[in-house]
Amino acid sequence: MFTTARTAALALVFAGSILLAQDAGKTEEYRLGPDSERRPDVPKGFVLKQAFNAGPNSVFPGTERDYWIYVPKQYDGSKPAALMVFQDGGGYLSDNGQWRVPIVFDNLIAKGEMPVTIGVFVNPGVVPSANGTNALPRYNRSYEYDGLGDRYARFLIHELLPEVQKSYLITPDPEGHAIAGASSGAIASFTAAWERPDYFRRVFSTIGTYVGLRGGNDYPTLLRKFEPKPLRVFLQDGFNDQNIYGGNWWIANQDMFSALQFAGYEVEKVWGMGGHDGKQGGSILPDALRWLWKGYPGTEIRRGTGEKHLAAQLVAGGWELVGRGYRLPAGLCANAAGEMFFTDAPENRIYRVNLDGSVKLLRSDTSGAAAMVQTPGGALLATQPEAKRLVALEGDNGERFVATEVSAKELVTSHQGVTYFTEPRTRSVKSLGKDGKVTTLDTGIEFPAAVCLSPDQTLLYVSDLLGQFVYSFQLQPDGALAYKQPYYHLHLPDDPRGAGADGMCVDTDGRLYVATELGVQFCDQAGRVNGILEKPEPGAWATDVCFGGKDGDELFLASGDKIWKRRLKAKGAQPWAAPVRPAAPRL
């Protein structure tokens, strides 16, 4: 659709660095086509200007902004319309500008080349000065647009768009929601869809700022590692785009396209010789919209097809709900039969997930058991951090104290019967020997959360809830820990609280699975994140993860108030089982 003689010639130019150097100073002339011109025979929609002032509980408190609503002539309120949201919205509306979006919408809707669509054009927020004209306002554009994370998506979905929906009927189907922007508005649009594909699935990105301003340069890597999402993405950029302190826009957009292709997404691109402006973007807008909306309604946007590391791990199908309605599910562990146990400490309850997927309440009034581990002898050992003790669970409601004056969070027991646990209050990693003696092994991790043994049980891993790393220790014959390293390098959310790394488990090939804010990050033995399994629900806190099931290949996850599971091609290595030596990693 987008291949022309000029585009083909440009492809040859881009193929050679000498030719690139020769053409570096050239630009192209981009003209708007007939779909960007007003036609008297085409029904004309109207545009309303609105203002949105955010309150103190907003995602962006104190901000004020204008926004505009485009309503096509064909909309009569009897049927829900599609939705398309534009960032830096005021720049898209002029009938004489580079974009002329209302004119293009009118023409394409009239021809049936895009659905009847409500357009929402949003400006970035400004916090007015408290000193009147004697001081500048705070300009929120880079904060709202360039940062990663779900802040801007939450603002749109839960604050601004509900105001639009008070007057206009918009489809709840995410297939009918598109989002667009240029420069920082482009990465804001991609981020909103990336974080909330349950709401936005079609992205139009021109001269996108996928560079190192607020972490956008991470996207090409994350795209290759994340479990693919149902997104369709159109990219545009030019060779003469910006090359400044944050990065090279032209190279960054090519990296994005390469990563989207690698991960099997529905992606289209148009490259040119232009600069950091909307000239080429405006000229291709009609064709880009046709591509973005093709097949709607009726043809769903497929998920990316994945890549080698993920395909080697995953089995077709995603997360399956096991149970819901718990206050804080955690403490996942499995027995030799594959049954999985978990705690709900605020409710003082312990549950078992049977092999048929049913959930059974085993015990109540457990004094706030926060985590559990299956011992080699088949008993359950539980932490009770508020009561400052470790207990062995016996019978229907019996408890036997095995250690007191310990505020353990998570624990693991080796095949040899030695228990290792974390104590965040003292920033400690400790052990409980078979003789009942508690020994402090390490201090200094900011918030030691979970502990996990390598499959051969020669290494102990400790996650840091407030940091970026999982620490690796070598276990010594006398039980001491040696050679501490911040070994597993996790990907971070756009959050000052760190990765949120909590529960962990390993498979028989030596991969480490870590429940984090971004999802379940799995790493090779060399400490590198190979892939990220998406959380079942956006915004939910993933607290723990473990392998279970009859064949040991079901990965269980505690997230929010729910327990989930999914089948993998990997098989879990359980700490109570005999050590397993995996193959050496590729370095």
Question: What does this molecule look like?
Answer:
The protein is 18% helix and 33% strand. The chain has 587 residues and is of the alpha+beta class. It has two domains: 5-297, Alpha/Beta hydrolase fold, catalytic domain (Rossmann fold, 3-Layer(aba) Sandwich), CATH 3.40.50; 309-567, TolB, C-terminal domain (Neuraminidase). The model is unreliable at 3-22 (pLDDT under 50).
Short key terms for the protein model shown above:
single chain, 587 residues, alpha+beta, Rossmann fold, Neuraminidase, 2 domains, 8-stranded mixed β-sheet, 4-stranded antiparallel β-sheet, 36 strands, disordered N terminus
How would you concisely characterize the structure shown here?
18% of the residues lie in helices and 33% in strands. Strand 22 and strand 23 form a beta hairpin.
Percent of residues in beta strands?
25-35%
Q: How many separate domains make up the residues?
A: 2
The assigned structural class equals alpha+beta
Name the CATH class of the largest domain.
Alpha Beta
- Classified in CATH, the superfamily of the largest domain is Alpha/Beta hydrolase fold, catalytic domain
